[in-house]
Each structure stands twice: as structure tokens, then as C-alpha cells.
Amino acid sequence: MKRGAAGRWLGWGLLLWLAGAGSVSSSTGAAQMRDERAVRAAYVFNLIKYVEWPSQDRELTIGLAGDAATGEVMEKLLNGRASDGETVRVVRSPSDEELAKCRVLYIADGQAGEALRFLEKVRGRSILTVGETEAFARAGGMIGLVNSGDHIQIEVNLDAAQSAGIRISSRVLNLATIVRTGQKGGN
Known about the structure:
Rossmann fold; two-stranded antiparallel ribbon; 40% helix; alpha/beta; globular; 10 strands; single chain
């Protein structure tokens, strides 16, 4: 039931959003990767609607660390879009100064050490951290978008989010697998 609800909640929105964004055919490996990146961008766009930060303004900045191709897709699909009255701005490879202005840090598939370095940089700040690897949320990231067969499973490290003063809606939590820092993989 949990996965079915997740599919219903995000499925229609993702399909409609991707259709409007002009998703590409997935006839080749490169096209499939672009599709996966577009789906992840759609997840991020939908998730930010269900997150509350201690302070908000008219612009929601998403910093992107890691894979340049993922950054390109995120920037193309999200930059300038409106979400709940806020304009989304994507900053690839943010400097420390730009990182301080981010409300979301998306860490694209990369080396585990690089992800940990970015998590340390933002620890204690009200920056929602989202990553792609299976170990991301268990390493202290807040939301992991993990491949599970032919779909993406949401993992939430609620302790990490709460310690940063970030509230994630029960609508997301009901669809997610809750994990803890240091917990071994598996459900």
C-alpha cells in the first residue's frame, strides 16, 4: 500500500509535469539517463512543496553538487519555475557563499567522500539535503531518492531534518522509508 500511495501521489504529478517539460524518448541508454534525471528533478520540485524551513523568502535556491549532467537537467527543468509563490533558482557547484543562501542542496551521484564533505559543510544549517545514493540518508543526508527496481523510493532521515529545523510533511513521511544515521541498508 505504501508504494502504491507513493505512485499515486507522485505518479500523476510527475507524468503531467514531465509531459509539460518535454521529456525525451528513452530508446537509448543516454536518453534513459536523461529521463531518470528529469524524474529526479520532478521529485525535488514536488518534495519542496511539502517541506517547511524556519525562514523563507521569495526565492528558493537549490544548490547542486556532483554530476554536471544532472545539474544541467535540474537547471533546465527547475530554474525559474514557481513553487508556492516562490521562484526556484538552481545554482550548480555552489561556492560557500552561494551555499549559505541555499534552502536545498542536491548531491548528485558521486563519490561517497564528496557527499560526506558537503553534508559536513551544511550540518546544523536549515538546508534540506537530497541525494541519490542508497547510503545517502543513512550517512546523515535528509532525503534519499533511491533506485528500487524500476522506480524511485524516498528515504527520509527524520533526525537529520529535525536537527536542522526542517519540517517534512506527514504526506511525504507516510510514503517514505524512515532511516537513521548509521543504520545498515535494507528495510
